[in-house]
Write a structure and sequence with these properties.
- By secondary structure, this protein is an alpha/beta fold.
- It folds into two domains: 209 residues, Response regulator (Rossmann fold), CATH 3.40.50; 148 residues, Response regulator (Rossmann fold, 3-Layer(aba) Sandwich), CATH 3.40.50.2300.
Length: 395
């Protein structure tokens, strides 16, 4: 499928590629028809809601936001091809560079070359390299941010050997490396096995790990890959304590696994995603807007956090641009590096005062800040009608 262009506002006058004139172009490279299309649906739903809200208030420094969506099908080669085609027409003001770390890594060298500001939710530590990628910023915690919570749990339970099964791609490899160092430092041995992202059976890798007698298992993957791991684990009668990593945990598995397949399996979630957690006072209004949108079905399929990822990043960019009185990407990148969270931030999915995930960057760190209380292991569950995660429900 070729590039899909979705315009969310009238184009206005002037060039879209000149900072300060014409529409503010937000180019989103995401999968809208492939294996991770559910992710794309939620992310686009949040972006559209934010664009409607911001444009109603005058846009970003007087420039209405125009959304352009490229269906990259989670394919790095396709993403690069479509990006180069777009850049031949002129530079977007802001880019969301893919739904996987592999896609982001393929796009960032080109965006850096052209000095295009990009903000994304992919979490490979390789993306957090301000010297190499000075115009890219993450808006979700990197995989490393989740690791201390697991290490703390492993030490409390007395684990001496832990296994990890992960996808043999940039995302999975990065996740493995993030666990490897801290576990070793804690005196915990880590054994591992990787699988091809297109594999339909994880049993051989699980048998390999089981033979090494670990006390716990870390599961990396998304969507069907997680299902295959859980099914294979159950087929082997292997009921050791198992824990989804930051990618596996939000995977929509409700109704696709049995109670036996998730026995002794827990997932890690940001506290702001959990039902019953205290929320930003403006979040309810945003939820009601999302529930009446064409993307409403994704609230119960993949969760509210996907929507607030793009909703919040646009609110953040608009806020900083308003403070700095500029939409120039290079100037905004510098402004991001000195920004401090206001008392009442306009982004709504990061806790009552934006404290769960803080958009506070430095010249050496372009990923957001988190704290030890930002994450929690819970029983697998489902998303309620508002998109909040309800642990232990639906099984």
């Amino acid at each position: 499928m070729g590039t899909i262009l979705a315009t969310v506002t009238a184009c206005g006058s002037g060039s879209a590629d000149s900072a300060g004139t014409g529409p503010f172009v937000f180019y989103v490279s995401i999968d809208t028809s492939g294996p991770t299309a559910i992710l794309g649906g939620g992310l686009l739903g949040g972006a559209r809601a934010a664009i409607t809200d911001i444009n109603a208030k005058g846009g970003i420094n007087g420039r209405e936001i125009k959304l352009e969506v490229s269906n990259d099908q989670n394919n790095p080669t396709k993403a690069v091809s479509e990006l180069q085609r777009r850049l031949a027409k002129g530079k977007p003001d802001l880019v969301y560079p893919g739904g996987s770390s592999a896609v982001s890594m393929s796009m960032l060298p080109i965006l850096t070359r052209d000095k295009v500001l990009s903000v994304g939710a992919t979490s490979s530590i390789q993306l957090n390299d301000p010297k190499k990628f000075p115009y890219h910023f993450g808006v979700t915690p990197p995989s490393a941010a989740y690791v201390p919570t697991f290490v703390q749990l492993a030490k409390a339970k007395g684990y001496k050997k832990v296994a990890m099964i992960y996808s043999d791609d940039a995302t999975g490899q990065s996740s493995f490396k993030q666990y490897e160092g801290p576990l070793k430092q804690a005196g915990i041995e880590l054994v591992s096995a990787s699988y091809d992202a297109t594999a339909l059976d994880m049993t051989p890798q699980l048998q390999q790990l089981k033979a090494q007698n670990p006390q716990a298992l870390i599961v990396n993957g998304y969507g069907t890959a997680v299902l295959y791991v859980l099914r294979g684990r159950s087929q082997l009668g292997w009921t050791l304590p198992s824990y989804g990593d930051q990618l596996a945990s939000p995977s929509p598995i409700a109704g696709k696994v049995t109670a036996a397949q998730i026995q002794n399996y827990q997932v890690i979630m940001q506290t702001s995603s959990l039902a019953g957690d205290q929320q930003h006072p403006g979040l309810d209004k945003v939820i009601q807007t999302l529930k009446t949108s064409e993307s409403a079905k994704y609230l119960t399929q993949a969760g509210l956090a996907l929507f607030t990822t793009t909703y919040d990043l646009l609110q953040y960019v608009a806020h900083v641009a308003g403070q700095e009185k500029t939409t120039d990407g290079e100037k905004l990148a510098k402004a991001f590096e000195k920004f401090k969270t206001p008392a009442n931030p306009p982004w709504v999915g990061k806790g009552p005062k934006g404290e769960v995930t803080q958009f506070e960057y430095t010249p050496t760190n372009h990923f957001p800040k988190t704290s030890a209380t930002s994450f929690k292991y819970v029983q697998p569950g489902t998303y309620d009608g508002n998109g909040f995660y309800v642990p232990g429900k639906g099984y």
